[in-house]
């Protein structure tokens, strides 16, 4: 039995927010926007909680890396069912300057080492919806020398030694059998995350959040990739409305010449 | 063994220096000498960019997305750089490679039964070994699920930060990539010695390819596998797959895509799109809502979390045009929207919009094609 599972959760701009690029090209305007837990992280957390409910794991540990606001995200992870949380605190400053996936993976490796023994599974979302990198889980498993599964749409534990993971790949599904310990990144179809109930939100206030400064872990989080410029994507010319199928076909044949 | 490889790499360097004459060295002897010196003094030999190629399942044919990654790599290293490709293929398939980029400096082949399926744990150590020997300046792969799963593992082993899903090459170290579901484009300067990138296939023309490998220097690197493959195999094994068989063109490379959303109401209705797709020779795509509702399989999903496509013609039927979906198709050349809700956001990006009930419009459209 896996005793502990570590779930990484990231605080990002809410997925329904229409972001604005700053006119000077310095980045995305992050003032006065709604923040929430990255949707893929919610799914990773839900999976860990379901594993605990099935008595496949004893303890669900949520971890987040970020400035002091990341504690809010950890509090919601606790309300959803995580047992305790670790907040790796980065210097306050521009929220857009969150550490790169490589630095995040190195920090998570430190947490994995700290939580040994008993930690044999790390669950992460397949990507954060702000930087869209899709890297951290793969990097973490590489640094640990562990096996990896990505884009998981089902996860089945096989005794104490292996997991069967169906991965969403181009062209369909591919199932791999990976040995524990392992890192799994989750896709949207793995599960439907639950909502936190009011009693659970109240209970979460009593659950512990351990704060660790990023400096004390000895991981260099200075960016290797410098963002030179951020621009809005080219706007599409507004099109025209057609009145009928005949008119549509005429436009496609004679104006666009695509059919 | 390592020294043997190094000698071969140096030989490739000399060969490349010879072929460099037509490349704007203007025939002056001085230019040629400085050119040759540059490479012979460089620790890298002539090989500068390595592209990790994906191979179509059950064949030894490089994917079109891999050829797009080759194009991006060539842009990054400039006219005087060289591109090598690594193809990991099932045992004894190395001589059957198909769809290999033309004018390739080198093709590394690794053959093993384990390579029937792309498992990153099995491949990443090989890339690291090649990198240690050849010191590539760039390691690229397509941003397909193959590249997305493999490349960050390689990057971490090399202690390099990765730039994901690039859509434009500004210079050897500067790349453009979409963030926030394509709602912003970030220009990123990578400072690491090796630039590790995955490449969005729809943003780069595939490199011209040939099935004839006679002009390509092929190096079999299978012997490099011995030292690590035993351990790597124990980490992960292929168990089974469930791939969707379709006679229609592949979604990622189709010239025309017809796509459906929740407006179809059920999976039976969703099949109406197939008739239209057959008339147009199109691939069928779907929104996340349609996939989650079970109308079709998930590999048809177009969007931030599914496939990114840029066909010549995209016809969206019965879909609203959520941000997540637009991120996957808004670079299409022409967008047609058919929806009964005139307020649907899809109309804001559509070149041609038709407000109407899809259950009336679709049959009419199909019959008139």
UniProtKB/TrEMBL annotation, chain A:
<protein>
    <recommendedName>
        <fullName>Electron transfer flavoprotein subunit beta</fullName>
    </recommendedName>
</protein>
<dbReference type="GO" id="GO:0005759">
    <property type="term" value="C:mitochondrial matrix"/>
</dbReference>
<dbReference type="InterPro" id="IPR014729">
    <property type="entry name" value="Rossmann-like_a/b/a_fold"/>
</dbReference>
<comment type="similarity">
    <text>Belongs to the ETF beta-subunit/FixA family.</text>
</comment>
<keyword id="KW-0249">Electron transport</keyword>
<dbReference type="Pfam" id="PF01012">
    <property type="entry name" value="ETF"/>
</dbReference>
<dbReference type="InterPro" id="IPR012255">
    <property type="entry name" value="ETF_b"/>
</dbReference>
<keyword id="KW-0813">Transport</keyword>
<feature type="domain" description="Electron transfer flavoprotein alpha/beta-subunit N-terminal">
    <location>
        <begin position="25"/>
        <end position="221"/>
    </location>
</feature>
<comment type="function">
    <text>The electron transfer flavoprotein serves as a specific electron acceptor for several dehydrogenases, including five acyl-CoA dehydrogenases, glutaryl-CoA and sarcosine dehydrogenase. It transfers the electrons to the main mitochondrial respiratory chain via ETF-ubiquinone oxidoreductase (ETF dehydrogenase).</text>
</comment>
<dbReference type="GO" id="GO:0046395">
    <property type="term" value="P:carboxylic acid catabolic process"/>
</dbReference>
<dbReference type="InterPro" id="IPR014730">
    <property type="entry name" value="ETF_a/b_N"/>
</dbReference>
<comment type="subunit">
    <text>Heterodimer of an alpha and a beta subunit.</text>
</comment>
<dbReference type="InterPro" id="IPR033948">
    <property type="entry name" value="ETF_beta_N"/>
</dbReference>
<keyword id="KW-0496">Mitochondrion</keyword>
<dbReference type="GO" id="GO:0009055">
    <property type="term" value="F:electron transfer activity"/>
</dbReference>
UniProtKB/TrEMBL annotation, chain B:
<keyword id="KW-0285">Flavoprotein</keyword>
<dbReference type="InterPro" id="IPR033947">
    <property type="entry name" value="ETF_alpha_N"/>
</dbReference>
<dbReference type="InterPro" id="IPR014730">
    <property type="entry name" value="ETF_a/b_N"/>
</dbReference>
<dbReference type="GO" id="GO:0009055">
    <property type="term" value="F:electron transfer activity"/>
</dbReference>
<dbReference type="InterPro" id="IPR014729">
    <property type="entry name" value="Rossmann-like_a/b/a_fold"/>
</dbReference>
<dbReference type="GO" id="GO:0050660">
    <property type="term" value="F:flavin adenine dinucleotide binding"/>
</dbReference>
<dbReference type="GO" id="GO:0033539">
    <property type="term" value="P:fatty acid beta-oxidation using acyl-CoA dehydrogenase"/>
</dbReference>
<keyword id="KW-0249">Electron transport</keyword>
<feature type="binding site">
    <location>
        <begin position="318"/>
        <end position="325"/>
    </location>
    <ligand>
        <name>FAD</name>
    </ligand>
</feature>
<feature type="binding site">
    <location>
        <position position="262"/>
    </location>
    <ligand>
        <name>FAD</name>
    </ligand>
</feature>
<keyword id="KW-0274">FAD</keyword>
<dbReference type="InterPro" id="IPR029035">
    <property type="entry name" value="DHS-like_NAD/FAD-binding_dom"/>
</dbReference>
<dbReference type="GO" id="GO:0005759">
    <property type="term" value="C:mitochondrial matrix"/>
</dbReference>
<keyword id="KW-0496">Mitochondrion</keyword>
<comment type="subunit">
    <text>Heterodimer of an alpha and a beta subunit.</text>
</comment>
<protein>
    <recommendedName>
        <fullName>Electron transfer flavoprotein subunit alpha</fullName>
    </recommendedName>
</protein>
<dbReference type="Pfam" id="PF01012">
    <property type="entry name" value="ETF"/>
</dbReference>
<feature type="binding site">
    <location>
        <position position="339"/>
    </location>
    <ligand>
        <name>FAD</name>
    </ligand>
</feature>
<feature type="binding site">
    <location>
        <begin position="301"/>
        <end position="305"/>
    </location>
    <ligand>
        <name>FAD</name>
    </ligand>
</feature>
<feature type="binding site">
    <location>
        <begin position="287"/>
        <end position="288"/>
    </location>
    <ligand>
        <name>FAD</name>
    </ligand>
</feature>
<dbReference type="Pfam" id="PF00766">
    <property type="entry name" value="ETF_alpha"/>
</dbReference>
<dbReference type="InterPro" id="IPR001308">
    <property type="entry name" value="ETF_a/FixB"/>
</dbReference>
């Amino acid at each position: 039995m896996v005793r502990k599972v570590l779930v990484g959760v990231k605080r990002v701009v809410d997925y329904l927010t229409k972001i604005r690029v700053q006119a000077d090209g310095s980045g995305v305007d992050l003032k006065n926007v709604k923040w929430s837990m990255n949707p893929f992280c919610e799914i990773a957390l839900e999976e860990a909680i379901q594993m605990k409910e099935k008595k496949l794991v004893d303890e669900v540990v949520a971890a987040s890396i970020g400035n002091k606001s990341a504690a809010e995200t950890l509090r919601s992870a606790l309300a959803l069912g995580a047992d305790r949380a670790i907040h790796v605190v980065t210097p306050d400053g521009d929220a857009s300057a969150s550490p790169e996936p490589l630095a995040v993976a190195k920090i998570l490796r430190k947490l994995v080492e700290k939580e040994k023994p008993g930690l044999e599974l790390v669950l992460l979302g397949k990507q954060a919806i702000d930087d869209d990198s899709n890297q951290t889980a793969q990097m973490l498993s590489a640094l640990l020398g562990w096996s990896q599964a990505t884009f998981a749409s089902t996860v089945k534990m096989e005794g104490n030694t292996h997991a069967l993971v169906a991965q969403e790949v181009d062209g369909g599904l591919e199932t791999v059998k990976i040995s524990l310990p392992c890192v799994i990144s989750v896709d949207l179809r793995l599960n439907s995350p639950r909502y936190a109930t009011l009693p659970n939100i109240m209970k979460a206030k009593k659950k512990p959040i351990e704060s660790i400064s990023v400096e004390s872990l000895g991981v260099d989080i200075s960016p290797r990739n410098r963002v030179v410029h951020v621009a809005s994507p080219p706007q599409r010319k507004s099109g025209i409305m057609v009145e009928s199928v005949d008119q549509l076909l005429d436009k496609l044949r004679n104006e666009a010449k695509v059919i | 063994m390592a020294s043997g490889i190094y000698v071969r790499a140096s030989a490739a360097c000399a060969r490349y220096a010879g072929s460099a004459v037509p490349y704007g060295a203007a025939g002056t002897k001085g230019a040629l000498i400085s050119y040759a010196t540059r490479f012979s003094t460089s620790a890298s030999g002539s090989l500068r960019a390595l592209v990790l190629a994906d191979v179509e399942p059950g064949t030894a044919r490089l994917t079109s997305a891999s050829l797009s990654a080759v194009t991006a790599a060539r842009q990054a290293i400039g006219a005087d750089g060289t591109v090598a490709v690594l193809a990991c293929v099932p045992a004894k398939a190395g001589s059957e490679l198909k769809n290999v980029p033309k004018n390739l400096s080198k093709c590394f082949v690794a053959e093993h039964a384990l390579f029937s399926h792309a498992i990153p744990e099995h491949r990443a150590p090989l890339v690291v070994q090649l990198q240690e020997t050849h010191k590539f300046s760039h390691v690229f792969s397509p941003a397909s699920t193959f590249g997305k799963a493999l490349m960050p593992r390689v990057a971490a082993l090399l202690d390099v930060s990765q730039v994901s899903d690039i859509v434009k090459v500004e210079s050897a170290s500067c790349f453009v990539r979409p963030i926030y579901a394509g709602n912003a484009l970030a220009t990123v300067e990578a400072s690491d010695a090796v630039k590790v990138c995955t490449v969005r296939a729809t943003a780069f023309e595939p490199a011209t390819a040939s099935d004839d490998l006679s002009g390509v220097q092929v190096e079999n690197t299978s012997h490099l596998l011995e030292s690590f493959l035993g351990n790597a195999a124990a980490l992960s094994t292929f168990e089974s797959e469930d791939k969707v068989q379709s006679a229609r063109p592949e979604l990622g490379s189709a010239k025309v895509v017809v796509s459906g959303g929740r407006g179809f109401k059920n999976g039976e209705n969703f099949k109406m799109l197939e008739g239209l797709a057959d008339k147009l020779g199109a691939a069928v795509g779907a929104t996340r809502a349609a996939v989650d509702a079970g109308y079709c399989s998930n590999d048809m999903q177009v969007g931030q979390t599914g496939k990114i496509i840029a066909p010549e013609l995209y016809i969206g039927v019965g879909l609203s045009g959520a941000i997540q979906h637009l991120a996957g198709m808004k670079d299409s050349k022409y967008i047609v929207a058919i929806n009964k809700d005139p307020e649907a956001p899809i109309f804001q990006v559509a070149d041609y919009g038709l407000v109407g009930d899809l259950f009336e419009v679709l049959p009419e459209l199909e019959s008139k094609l």
